[in-house]
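Slide 14.
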Amino acid sequence: MLRFQRTGDAEAFAGVVARCLPSAIAIARRILNDTALAEDAVQEAFLRVVRRREAYIPSQPFSSWFYTILRNVCVDTLRRRARQTRLVREASARHPAMERPTDSATDALDLLAALPKGERDVLVLRIAQELSFREVGSALGISEEAAKKRAQRGLKRLRTRYHARQGRPGRRDQEAAGLPVVGALE
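Slide 15: predicted structure.
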């Protein structure tokens, strides 16, 4: 870490990442209970190391400094999730239509609820709140690109589960059979 701090050497930083990455992901996964969020938190922690490398005190263990940063990122993520959950509950309480969902709405909510938390949060903010990916990323403390990737993964899972419930082949099966790909979630 000292070499990276002094020179900004990318190889030195790659060595730091390689040493810390497995345990960092395991720790973040335990705190957040979500693999995608844990990976995002670790990435954010490493970004903070890069941005604040001059704050590192070489006489102190790097691992203590890094894991403090990672813990703070995870705590921030948990706070954002709690705030988002509260906002969604408040919004659903204000809209009577959300209290008495139709069967198709219930199915859609069930499918959405089955998604991993990170993907579900992105889709709720993007679709229900009509936020841009930049705004979604900012709200969740992730990059715009990470928000897009989570949305893509979430939509793919929704599509697969929707087709499974309908007893219809998935997109790849339809394409392989030369059928047009049509569906409510396409």
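Speaker note: The chain has two domains: 2-78, 101-176.
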